[in-house]
Write a structure and sequence with these properties.
The protein has about 90 residues and is α+β, with helices and mostly antiparallel strands. It contains 3 helices and 7 strands. The chain has a 3-stranded antiparallel β-sheet, with no helix packed on it. β5 and β6 form a beta hairpin.
Amino acid sequence: MENLTFSQALEACKDGKKIARAGWNGKGMFVWELPAENITEDRIEDPIVKQIAAGKGSVTFDSTLRMYTATGSIQTGWLASQADMFAKDWMIVA
């Protein structure tokens, strides 16, 4: 699907689809949702998160958007710009 609004693309993202804008300069970039998850203390590697979870048994991570960037890295906590939110060139990518 092409020529979607940000709202339509975001709904597709919530349904597990990868989304992107046709107008992005970095080809191959896309965004997807990392769903919320409750992680047990024994699976936590980050020392600060481990400290937060200490004694609680687990910690809940809220949903976030992630982006596969033009440089091949993954950005967690991607935020749409004003231009992204008003664009009508969003699409679902395979």
